[in-house]
Amino acid sequence: SLPLDINIRMQADSGKPTVVAQPDSQIADTYKEIARKAASKIAIASLDYSAKFPNIVIQNT
After folding, report:
1. What's the domain range around 40?
2. pLDDT band at 27 (very low <50, low <70, confident <90, very high)
3. What is the distance between the alpha carbons of residues 22 and 36, in angstroms, rounded to a whole number?
């Protein structure tokens, strides 16, 4: 979880999020860790695209 810190809101409102404004801070490290975990879960998730494509049926006549 992220700490309650006014700098998170202030930096985001100014267009410079914490990971850019203070890349070496504990808050930025926490954001980066959350992003890594989310990316990892997305990468290993099994994707099913079968609903995106029509069924192709080949019939020998």
Report:
1. 6-45
2. very high
3. 18
